[in-house]
Structure prediction request, 457 residues.
Amino acid sequence: MRLHNSYTNQIEDFKTIDENKVKMYVCGPTVYDNAHLGHARCYITWDVLYRYLKFKGYDVTYCRNVTDVDDKILKKAEKEGKTPEEVSTYWYQRFSESMKALNNLKPDIEPFATKTLGEMISIVKDLINKGYAYEADGDVYFRVKKFPAYGYLSKQPIDQLESGARIEVGEQKEDPLDFALWKKDEKFGYKSPWGVGRPGWHIECSAMSRKYLGKTIDIHAGGADLIFPHHENEIAQSECANGCKFVNYWLHNGFVTINKEKMSKSLGNFLTIDDLLKNYDANTIRFFILTNHYRMPVEFSDEALQAAANGVKRMLNAKRTQVDETLDIKTFEEYKEFVSAMDEDLNTSKALAVLFDLAGKANKDVPYAFTLLFKLASTLGFTFEKATLSEEELNAKLAEISTELGENYSSMEEIIEKRKIARAEKNWEAADKIRVALDKVGIVLKDSKDGTIWELK
Prediction:
């Protein structure tokens, strides 16, 4: 398996620290508002990596943090007259619901920043003792120039970074490049050796990663917007505090754009996951994201989502057979093609082409095709659950069909029987009227040697 390492800017063979074990950290949400399509892309991408590593037999520990102490949370709390904890608890719950609705697996570990303060303070103390950090009137800063490799991840030389650096009013930095490890905050802060304050954003991930995964980890992933300064700063503080390499493979997903601009809350051009799910299901959103390579930008449009919806329909409407759990899927050529695509830096568009091929074969009654399709599509996080109707919704559709056909029907079975009789009598006009009436309410009939069933389109 080969993955693109942002640190070296090379596609490299993936080798784990411990045989067959993968320690994987993904930067999680700052919980103060609705999750949007940009978040969906990030967390679906790393959900697919998590699923695929497990599919290949790795023992994966996936840690994704929750930032529940941050300037944005504090501003929202003040604006709404709530405590920061009330704000972060509410929005974390909403985020979790959005992730579940997208069929993202829950990480193995989901630590909260406020529950890891002891580890953060410990790392800051280590950095001060080693001369990499200094305290200034209740704030603590990292000495960037003490870490010669600073700027390597983002491919920005120190002198280039220096030219744009400024010291803000109220900051007491030795150097404009230095960044905050701890901030004085007497209103919302926590006790520390430097007075009441709260952690800088960057130290949070270093502390949580070290506590739950160890000093050196296999994979650290996130959006490309986090490369600088967040991930650059994580490397500096972690490697200086721990005295060893922090991450072996840095992975970053590209942006979602609207009219060629990055989708973000700050630009106000974002679509929330909840709003998207009103028009498109989780399979469609996942398909839309996976048709593009994870490192490339993806342009949002309703046309692209509609094309994805059609692709999902083509895949999931494949003729179904019982899933054969005894089938050794590794012996089939399609399995090898799928693995070959995914092993080459998660080439999901090629992997989807294999799924389409299997859907076509399932429709031609190739015996193994649906089992293989089901197993491989599930590895990418697609679900084969059929949409269902409540009794009330079904009765409403039956009423519409009855009106359209001019006869009263109290069940779908009656309609299927009526169509069966019409076809037996070669009354194609009556049979077609039933098809049209069903189509208008989003129902389709599927015939097989075992009989006729109805499904929602």
Summary: The chain has three domains: 2-258, 280-379, 391-456.
